[in-house]
Amino acid sequence: MKPIALLFLLFLLGNCGPGPKEKISIYHIYKFDKQVIDKLPVYDSLVVAILENAPSLHSNMKEKDSYRSYRYMLYSDSTELFKKLTAEQAGKINRYFMQLGKNFFYGFDLFKDSSIKIYIRSSISEKDQVEIKENLSYYPPGTKMSRREFPAKDTILNKNWQYWIAFDERELF
Question: What is the Rg, in whole angstroms, of the alpha carbon atoms belonging to the chain?
C-alpha cells in the first residue's frame, strides 16, 4: 500500500467513531425511562425468582471466569437457562421476562455475591453514533453500591436498586 493511501486510511479510521463531544451531548440529553422505574416491583419479583435459583446458577460459574458470574441472555440462541434449571424453575423466571416485555429486559448476570445486573435495552443514537446501554443493578443487603462515572450515569432508586446508562462508541463489528 502506498504511503499516501495508508495515511488517508489512518485518517478515516481515526475520525469515524464518536468523540468525547458526542458522548457528552447524548449524556446530558438522555433521560432515565420512567417506565423502567415504574416496573421496579416486577424487577423485584424477577430478582426473587433468580435468587431462589442462585445455588444452581452459582454451581455453574467457572472459577476461571474473571467476572465470576452466570450470564443469561433471553433473546440469544442459547438454551443455557433451561439446561441448568428445571422447567418449573425456568418457568418462574421467564414469567417475569414476559411481564416486562422485550423493551425492558434482554438478560441478566448473577454474581457470586448475589448482586444482579439486569440488561434492559441497548440502542444506537443514529445522530451521534453512540451506543446507549440501559441497565439495572440489584445489590443485596450488605453489598456496596458504587456510583457510576462518565461515560455512564446513574440514579439510585432505593437501597437495593441502581438504574444506570452507559454511553459507548458504536461497535463496528
Answer: 19
Alpha helices by DSSP H, the chain: 3-14, 20-29, 34-38, 40-52, 54-58, 80-84, 87-100
pLDDT per position as a tens digit, 71-117: 777 666 655 554 566 777 778 888 898 899 889 998 888 888 889 99
> What is the longest distance spanned by two Cα atoms in the chain?
63
Report how far residue 122's alpha carbon sits from residue 27's, in angstroms, rounded to the nearest whole number: 15
CB-based burial, 68-80: b 16+ in 10 Å, e otherwise: ebbbbebeeeeee
Dihedral sign for Cα 136, 39, 141, 92, please.
Answer: negative
How far the first Cα of the chain sits from its last, in Å, is 24
3-state SS class at 17? coil
CB of 106 within 8 A of CB of 113?
A: no
pTM recorded for the entire structure = 0.77
